[in-house]
Sequence to fold (94 residues):
Amino acid sequence: MAEKDNDKVVSLSGARHKSTENEKEEKTEKEVVICSFCSRPNHQVLKMIQGPGVNICSECTMIAVQYLILEDRIPSGQAQQILDAFWQGAKNNK
Fold:
């Protein structure tokens, strides 16, 4: 289960910090990554992006994107299709 959960975590800070393969294996086996915005762990979300000192899950990312798109009050048809597809997929995966 831990291996599957950690496949959901994408680290953006990994390019800055080069660790050995052994360190990576130890870290991913035990690591629980928490979203800095909603406080959900990586095993309760679709994907998690891990940055330097901050993490954001796919759901919080889409909420932010949706806010930025809808703030203009005129979402393009393509943007709306992407948002609809994401939220439908999120409902089906729960």
The helical segments are 2-6, 21-30, 58-71, 77-92. The beta strands are 9-11, 48-51, 54-57.
